[in-house]
Amino acid sequence: MRVDLFDFDLPETSIALRPASPRDSARMLVVLPQGEQVLGDHGVLDLPSFLRPGDALVFNDTKVIPAQLEGIRRRGEDVATPVSLTLHMRVAPDRWKAFARPARRLKPGDRISFGHGENACLLGALDATVEEKGEAGEVTLRFDLSGPVLDEAIMSVGHIPLPPYIAAKRPEDARDRTDYQTVYAREEGAVAAPTAGLHFTDRLFAKLDEAGIERHFVTLHVGAGTFLPVKADDTTDHVMHAEIGHVDAATAEKLNAVRARGGRIVCVGTTSLRLIESAATEEGEIRPWSGPTSIFITPGYRFRAVDMLMTNFHLPKSTLFMLVSAFAGLETMRAAYAYAIEAGYRFYSYGDASLLFRKDQ
Predict the structure, then answer these.
(1) In sequence order, which residues have a C-beta less than 8 Å from that of residue 181 and are 6 or more positions away?
(2) From CA 240, how far away is CA 335, in angstroms rounded?
(3) Tell me, what DSSP letter sits at residue 286?
(4) What is the largest CA-CA distance in the chain?
(5) HSE of 199 in the Cβ direction (CA atoms, 13 Å)?
(6) Strand pairing partners for 84?
(7) How far apart are CA 355 and CA 173, in angstroms?
(8) What is the distance between the alpha carbons of residues 357 and 309, in angstroms, rounded to a whole number?
(9) What are the tens digits of pLDDT across the range 144-160?
(10) What's the burial of 290, exposed, middle or buried (CB within 10 Å: 0-12/13-18/19+)?
(11) Secondary structure of 185-252 in the HEC alphabet?
(12) What rounded mean pLDDT belongs to the chain?
């Protein structure tokens, strides 16, 4: 499909720079199935009223790490050159793939120093070698540290990689270490938050428990590729970056039981949806999954297992707006986004939510 079909005009004032406070006070636009009332203005706390006892929410429990690293490239006797890298996928205990800016300054064999300066302790410094250089500014870094020690060093020298549409307007600060993390995050490895999950609180979980709604957790480590623009003119020419995910056998069994008794699978966020659809067979059976997925969902895709989707509002011409258009219908989503802009909904990572019902397939 033509990528320009997924374009729309978004005022700068619609982009949220901070989350709602409290988290569950965000607004929620409900986009009902075609043939019914299409739109409804609600709040995130109203979510249980749209679910039935026996339905199951699926959350992504990945935990954001401070994956934005500012470093100095050293090459022989050359003058030291500043570079910025965003880690996006771990490929070995001592190796990460990263996006570099400016990538033209790097080549295999270069040494990069991070965190050297005022902090002289061991965890205040980190060094790596550029092992490979790929396309679109991607490099593979081999760090001098490995495993948990490397994790601690990254925590010490790194910064939360705020999405570019926020970082361009303000710097990261101490609040973001809390705000840009779900309350249930536990599996470290993401460089971007599963943002639909940012709305959940203990108060909302209590309301869901009272309503008889199940909660299940999967892990998809969101990569920086989620922010990369679609540069192709046609969706068939776009290459998705892979992300590492995991669905354990017990969770797969429980979700299959939900479907068998007529309950609905409700994914919180596009990340959990992409993982569940990757793990599902053509018949809709969810199987255990562990490894990379580069699933790219566009209109015409036949959904296998997911019935409803709670998600934030996404960028024009992004792979995520393509996904929601596949789920609820392109014209439906174009109308929903036009309504949301006019009604003052807050967009993107720190913005409001939408609740989508899958269109007839």
Answers:
(1) 63, 64, 193, 198
(2) 26
(3) B
(4) 69
(5) 27
(6) 70, 101
(7) 30
(8) 7
(9) 999 999 999 999 899 98
(10) exposed
(11) CCEEEECCCCHHHHHCCHHHHHHHHHCCCEEEEEEECCCHHHHCCCCCCEHHHCCCCCEEEEECHHHH
(12) 92
Which amino acid, one-letter code, is at 68? Answer: Q
Cβ–Cβ under 8 Å, residues 270 and 197: no
pLDDT at 222 over 80: yes
Structure tokens at 136: 């679109």
Q: How far apart are CA 166 and CA 64, in angstroms?
A: 16
The tokens describing 123, both together, are 């965890």
**Distance (Å, rounded) from C-alpha 206 to C-alpha 204?**
5
Predicted structure pTM score: 0.90
pLDDT tens for each residue of 78-130: 667 899 999 988 899 999 999 998 888 899 999 999 985 544 344 457 999 99
Place of tokens 């792979």: 319
Q: Which residue has the higher pLDDT, 230 or 26?
A: 26
170-185: per-residue pLDDT in tens?
Answer: 988 989 999 999 999 9
Report the length, in residues, of the chain.
Answer: 361
Cβ pair 57, 214 in contact under 8 A: yes
